[in-house]
Structure formats: structure tokens, C-alpha cells
Prior knowledge:
By secondary structure, the chain is of the alpha/beta class. The chain has three domains: 2-157, Beta Polymerase, domain 2 (2-Layer Sandwich), CATH 3.30.460; 163-306, NAD(P)-binding Rossmann-like Domain (Rossmann fold, 3-Layer(aba) Sandwich), CATH 3.40.50.720; 336-412, no CATH class. Helix content is 55%, strand content 13%. Helix 6 (114-129) packs antiparallel against helix 7, helix 7 crosses helix 14 and helix 14 crosses helix 15. The radius of gyration is 30 Å and the shape is elongated.
Amino acid sequence: MTLLVLGLNHTTAPVDIRERITFGPDIIVGALRSLTESAGASEAVILSTCNRTEVYCYGGDLDPDRLQAWLADFHGLETENLCTYLYLHQEQKAVEHLLRVASGLNSLVLGEPQILGQVKSAWQTASDAGTLGKILGRMFQHSFSAAKQVRTDTAIGDSPVSVAFAAVSLSRQIFSDLSEQTALLIGAGETIELTARHLQQQNIGRIIVANRTVAKAHELAEQFGGYAIGLTEIPTHLAEADIIISSTASPVPVLGKGAVESALKQRRHQPMFMVDIAVPRDIEAEVRELRDVYLYTVDDLEEVIQENLKSRQQAAEQAAEIIELRTSEFIAWLRSLDAVEMIQTYRGRANRIKEETLQKALRMLDNGTPAEQALEFLANTLTNKLLHTPSSQLREAGSNGQRDLLEAATTLFQLDK
């Protein structure tokens, strides 16, 4: 059986590639079932975020080339054009990779906590879709435990560094005092909530939350004294916004160049600061061409983020030691499964011999054989039958000079040489 992860992330692929290889909530269940039905996986989990898309698989008929072809074909791309951006990890490296991802060690923002929630969501989706089995189920649960240990035993999460924090830090470079500014936040997920929290800490003047589901927007806006609108109302309120930060799961842009041009005219070309955290992008790339607009994507935030990472580097080294240990634990469990199956088979054979011999001894008693004679028959027969196969195999090993098998038997049976 093979365990592997195939994927791409912010270090291997630019945003225009990543946004073409995403699995939105409307297609991910179908993709999981396609993996198990046509790509040779007996178990599958898909992790798809703005910074990464990864396919975790376990099965006896897994072929990396076939899996790459499936990923490209599912998204309508040529395999040759995609494979240059992909990484592949198998067995122990696959386990280590997942533990690092769940712990935030492979994130754009080192140690960011949001990824663990996304990993748990991927696990839950696979469970609901029926593609989560014993191996991946245990592996993902193990990653949750490892991530918790990293968060508890190191200072990886002590510094307030995240994509949301970086976006707010950039906005302060454009507008030194945020108390007079209005922020339009598009979306209502964890990243937007974290952004609103950072803005509030910087005394933002006003917050508007726009979301496809207005009730969810209202729920978030209420926490920060903001105002909620639907996505269709954005053009009406866009001119009010000095800061626009967007992170939705929309497959198409929610903010176009024309709407921004109209807003700029109403604002008399007062500058607008925009951060598009979404993948696929929420804001049309052409918006960057407009004067008085400062548009950043997740890739643009990396330089800002790097300045805030120094305090986490030592913690990351400590976390790596934890990951190494926890990876070894899981691999030991995985390898033990072969022994468990062997033990079950051997015990089953021994129990059949016991039952057959016991029935013969009971018939002897029924036929008047003395109990002492029946017990002696039971003991001798059990001993002979249980030792017959190992004894004959050891004799053959000795004749063939198989020293390794003889040494293994010495350890297995705890024999004094």
C-alpha cells in the first residue's frame, strides 16, 4: 500500500496557477469520489486553501504519474504544464509534510493558526464524502495532536503575524492614522474576521462587511460595530471605502475595474488601498492599472510578512524536533499494522488447532478414556501441531544457511543461543 501527498503551494506556484487548481465547496466532494473511483486511491483527502492545494491519498494501486494526470485533467490543464509546479511526498515524508502544514510551519505566515482549522475542515469533508479510511483518518488526527503540541510547547504563535496582520500593516503605511478611514471587508470567513480584529486594534474609523449571505455579514459586523451589506450592494458603498480587503470563495471576481473607476470619480481620486487575499482572485487584476489604487495580492504580502518572522524562527526549530518525533510515532504505528494482521492470522490458526484437539479430547472422555490420558493427549497434540511448522521451517533454514532467519527466530522466541 502507498501513502502520498501531491500538491502545490505559494512557494512552488504563482497565484495565477494556484487559482486554477482550487477545489471549491461545490466540487470537492465530486473530486474526492473521483479520486477513489478512477485514480486508484482507496482513501483520499483534499486540502484546498488560498495558498495551497494538496491531495492526500492511500491505496494499493497508487501511481504518482496517474495522480498528476488526474489533477491536471480535473482542472482542464495539460499535465506537462502543471507538473513543474507540483511536489510529491511519499510514506514518511508525506506524514511529516502534513504535520508541518497543520502546525503552520509550511504557511506563508510561519506559525499562523488558521491552517489547522482548514486541515480539520478538509478531514471532515472527506469523512462526510466517505473517502476517509483508517489510515488517513488516523494520520490527520495525529496531525491535529502534533499541531496542538507545537502551539503549546513552543512560542510559534506568540507574535501577531498573519496575512490579515500584514494587510493591516500595509494599510497603515498608506494611511498613518486609521481612525479617520473606512474599511470594506469582503467575505465573512476566519481571515476576514482576523482582519477586522486587527483593524479594530488600530482604531479603524468604520467597518463595512460585505458577504453573499447578509446574515453572516451582519453577525460579523456586529462584533466590531460595523455595517453589513450583500455583495450586490458593493458598488453603492465602494466610494465610502478607503481600505478594501477581500477574501471570499467565489470562483469569479466580485469586484471589477469598472466599479472601482466609478468609485474613484465619486471620491475625487482620493487613494484606495486594496488587498486581495482570495484564490481565485476576488478583484480583477486590471484594477492595478488604475491611478490612486494600491492593489496587493497574497503574493505581494510576503515581503511585509518576512519582516515580522524573526521572532518565530527559533520556535520553528523547536517545532521541527516535535514534528520529527511525532512523524516517527505515526510511521511506527503504520508499520505495526502488518504485524497486527500477521498476529491475527497466527492466532486464528492456533485457535482452530485448539478447537479441533479439544473436541477430540472431549470425545475420548465421552468414550471412557481416563481423564489423565485425555489431558496428556491434549497437551502433546497441541504442542506437536503448534511447533510443527516453525520447527520444519527452522530445519530448512539451517540446511540452506539462512542465518538471518535463524537469528530472527532466536529473537522472536527469546531463545538462549
